[in-house]
Amino acid sequence: MLELYETFTNTQKNTFADICNKLLANTYLARDKRDNKEAYYFVVSYKDLFEEYFKLMNMQLVLNRDLGTITLENTNSQTILKLKRDESIILLIIRLLYHEKLKETSINTNVVATVNDLHAKYDMLEIKRKINKTDLVAMLRLFRKYNLIEPMGDVSNSNTQFIIFPTILEALKTDQIDAVYNTISKLAAEGGQ
Fold first, then answer.
1. DSSP code of 83?
2. Alpha-carbon dihedral of residues 26, 30, 33, 38, nearest 10 degrees?
């Protein structure tokens, strides 16, 4: 590992450090996100080096070339982000919207949804307590930070579109959806608090 790193130019060493910090902070890289593209291909080029580096921290680098995603997984689950109930609901809705909208797009087109789409799905759950605009904006910023979505305007406007990246499939895997959905259904049945 060190032999390859020592052959890097100073620019490559800085790029390596920046990407490691980005992965540690954001967990995901999406090839199709403009500010991730260069980092994605750098990791692909030096995948073994990144894997060895993160292995020292009990972390695993997962490259999915088909989806164009890179995920940094913690093998001992100490740094898993704990989401609040509403954040979990919105994440689940974004995951569902990804699948619905994917059917409507061509292979080379990004999956796009609107804030209105989120509200419509949330309303279908019939939860008594509605999500307010400030909280929704904060949640969408959080998911943007983790490279799950990219808003295409002011997310406080209900007509604003956002791109949903395939990293959503890594953030909420298929086997986790049932557990999250059952929890949401249980909460809704208990009074929608």
1. P
2. 90
pLDDT averaged per 10 residues, the chain (length 193): 89 97 95 95 97 93 95 77 86 91 78 93 82 92 95 92 94 74 67 51
How confident is the model at residue 81, as a pLDDT? Answer: 75
Q: For 32-44, give one letter per residue: b (16+ CB within 10 A) or e.
A: bbeebeebbebbe
Exposure on the CB side of residue 107, measured as CA atoms within 13 A: 1
Query: What is the rounded CA–CA span in Å between residue 62 and residue 23?
Result: 11
- CA nearest 9: which of 54, 42, 48? 42
Q: Which of 37, 176, 186 is nearest to 95 (CA)?
A: 176
Strand order of the β-sheet with 69-74 is 28-30, 69-74, 59-64
Measured at the CA of 91, the angle between CA 36 and CA 85, to 5 degrees, comes to 135
